[in-house]
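REVIEWER CHECKLIST
Item 1: Sequence provided? yes
Item 2: Single chain? yes
Item 3: Sequence as submitted:
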Amino acid sequence: MSEVKIIQTTPSELSTLISDSVKKELENFKKELSKTDNSDSLLTREETCQLLSINLSTLWSYTKKGKLPSKKIGNRVYYLKSEILKALNS
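Item 4: Structure as written out by the authors:
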């Protein structure tokens, strides 16, 4: 572990350095988060309800009305995360 020594730094300079570092890290985190948010992962009905903070009957209603497109695989219903995010933005 490296040691950092701060010599002759005013409180305002230190505050600016910390602020800039935090902003940079938050921007990197935001970029990483946006990469994972746009993935085409399949979500179950329960996972979709959790993501949207709704219950199963509301999800069924949104699907029936065409607000959320669903995918059927066998007897199961799935939702693409990218389509959910697209529906939220429209």
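Item 5: Key structural point noted by reviewer: Residues 12 and 32 are 30 Å apart (CA to CA).
Item 6: Recommendation: ____
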